[in-house]
Structures
1.
Amino acid sequence: MTICVSVAAATIKEAVEAVNAAREKGADLVEVRFDLMAEQPSDLTPLKNIPIPKMATLRSKAQGGAWEGDDEAKARFFRRAIKAGFTLIDLEDDSPLLQRRERDMKNVERVISHHELDVTPSTSRIIELMLLAGAKGELPKGAFAVNSVEELHRLVHAGKMLALTGKKYVLLGTGDFGPITRLRYRRLGSSMTYASLEAGKETAPGQVDVATLKRMENGIITGITGMPLGHSYSPAMHRAAFASLGIAGTYLPFPAEKNELPLLMEIVRELDIAGLNITIPHKESVMEHLDEIDATAQEVGAVNVVVNRKGRLIGRNTDVSGLGQAFKAAGADLGGKRALIVGAGGAARACAAFLRREKANIVIANRTRSRADEVAKRFSARAAGLDDVAGMEFDVVVNCTPVGMEGFPAELPIDPAVLRPGQVVMDVIYNPERTPFLAEAEERGCQTIPGREMLIYQAMDAFEAWTGQRPSYEIMAEAVRKEQG
Ligand code: NAP
């Protein structure tokens, strides 16, 4: 493993402290970003005897740094750095200094770097840049802003091609998708990666701190895709589960457009991502890009969890099992009961799949009647319009629409006359915890189950599928409570 900790310091004294700290934290080498110093130090000898390989960098403004001096000043500075024990220097791939091999720069390794701050170029351009920069046996480094799945795919694909050359190179991403390119740098074929000394001390966007990088060397990466990926409780729940079980793991966002789904699935395989949650609007469209869909997900016609089994991607639906455990934990007996499902989308289908297993008699009421008909047919249920059910008798009522969710008007999804004392009423919405529908049901003497329960149990099942370990309900519930504030 080769981790280069990149440090920024205002003074030489602070630089010494930072280099020592990086060494103590297990860095293999340290890059000192001298361009970020208030002014270049006249004496570099305090760094000389710190026993760790050191790289001197004066990143120019055009490539994302703060260096504004000319090439001669840069060359003079590097000569001093080499005298002070620096064994690596960073030169940008458009630097005139590249042509020079001065006598006192002979015994130094040169990293030839190329930075694109706004975009990741095409795969072929990345390869070209790296081959050109590394042409004279020097170490090429490409750092590209990766802000979409498509851009990440370009980088991953370039890494795969470059690895075939057998040459050494450094590839990494800045931007939103930067962290995965650092955590999985080996999978990009990169011979090293750059880390920050600690969180909050990044010298480039997308850096991961050295302690996390070391902990995650063989760690488990999971995450979520959807579009847009609004605020979700899933990262907090899964990260809390990893921490409580002492598993090196993390949970990252992978926002993707529909046309990026096949690329994302390739990335999951290539970067050894253990699995993903799939959320709106991809729960159905992701299915065609997977190797296998399990029986429950097929029944529902939607996948909310992808599990990577040695490169084979399996689609599952833990909304069904999550819903079932939420009912079970509440002590609800559903066998043969009369159940009303409000809505005919993905959550409604998961609910219908579960209730059919319980042999409940199901009515599906939906705003768009034709969708209710479709889902009812699929699950041997009866279909109804939203206005048809107020006079009917039910033992169980489940809201599977977003009506009452935060950001929506605080309305009821159905005529409350359908609510009767003693019924079991669930709302799959988890934000807010007590929806207008649940509040109304409580007032009418029903037993209520908040959507938060389903959320937690589906997450527990997903986590277990990815890691083989069952997280504690309490840990995940606590993470949700903290998020709810
Ligand atoms: P979906 O596939 O888009 O389906 C939405 C359903 O709600 C459709 O039947 C739609 O009716 C209906 N609907 C939407 N707006 C409505 C309105 N203003 N009035 C009446 N009906 C309306 O969505 P989904 O994936 O099933 O998700 C539904 C809800 O479940 C979301 O709030 C989601 O957050 C929640 N959910 C919770 C969990 C959990 O773990 N607790 C898991 C999954 C989903 P039409 O057919 O007429 O459009």
2.
Amino acid sequence: MTNSDVNKQNSCMDDFDPDSLMVTDALKNIYAAISPISESEVVPIRESLNRILSKNIVSSLNVPTATNSAMDGYALHGNDIPKKSTSEIKVIGTAFAGKPYQGKVGQNECVCIMTGAVMPDATDTVIIQEHVERVDDVILIGAETKLGANVRQAGEDIATGDIVLEKGARITPADIGLIASLGLGNVEVTRKLRVAFFSTGDELCSIGEVLKDGNIYDSNRYTLFGMLSELSIKIMDMGVIRDDREALQQAFEKAASQADVIITTGGVSVGEADFVKEILQATGSVNFWKVAMKPGRPLAFGKIKDAYFFGLPGNPVSVMVTFYQFVKPAIRHLMAETKTETVTIQVPCISKLKKRPGRVEYQRGILERDKNNQWVVRKTGAQGSGILRSMSQANCFIVLPVNSNSVEPGTIVEVQPFF
Ligand code: AMP
Ligand code: MG
């Protein structure tokens, strides 16, 4: 649906704002404004974990390199397997993984073989040891094994020239194993982004300071640290900046000269925005949006010099919601990651959820199994945008679409897991 569809809704509702931007449009605008970086660096394989590949990885060898046995058993010529009844085959040696059998293997001869051992001379089939009867140097085999059975062909996993991993992929534990299986010790990845952030607010104290009347400890810098740490980037924590023109101006300038991305929290809500707006008008091109979402309505996005800027709301839950919905996908896009879509699943909700049409809501949920072992979601309790415990208890967002009303227990809802 479009903005104007929403505009036609009953405008007496609190949650409806005719000037607001849809979440999907805000995200589209952000993606359109960001050009992924092209600079790359070569890092040792272990350091490439969770980084973004800047080149396809093409195999220069077959994996496995040689045809080998998938089981412990006896390697032989498949045409020696009897069509019916049984045959006697002579055991002439043993092949171990890493220590192949070097001799010839004739008709009606076999080699005792271990899993992973290279298939000896011209043999093509392995009969597993449970399927034979062995008496001294002779095995008795039946007709049950098929020609070519229990053998892993050279190049079966990866063939020379195969694209094993594509440019733009985020490197997983399986991927570094795969890269190691090709014998590669270094990987080319996009360079690390530098992300600077600071909190704004005269009421904020840092850990170690004594709280005075009306003060609170700054928690946003810690949730941001946590969320950013999962992205393999360089983090620059610039602390708390007072609601002071000069101090803010300096902080923005310093951040813009050192970082690719600047994130601030607080100071973009009505009443405070004007102040920040004035400062940013001088140094950059920043839009102040009202996004049709809850929590997290006010959001600033744009550029300060060459750095992308995200001005998030101050409330602790709003910070996390706007980070996950906008900043995280934007950073992944900027890092040149190709697949940046957030995974959602559909599950029954067992709580009643209060909602009014007009905004997409990100309620905090707990995904768990019910007594029938089925996955369901329930809400965490109070849903205020300042209640950080609701995030701490949650393992997912319950995403309620813009036009939806309250949810009755048993309704299928969309859920974004945090894991
Ligand atoms: P603001 O967007 O600056 O008006 O802040 C909205 C609310 O979030 C206020 O109650 C602030 O005290 C609170 N808040 C702002 N920044 C932080 C922070 N860094 N840590 C915890 N709470 C904050
Ligand atoms: Mg403030």
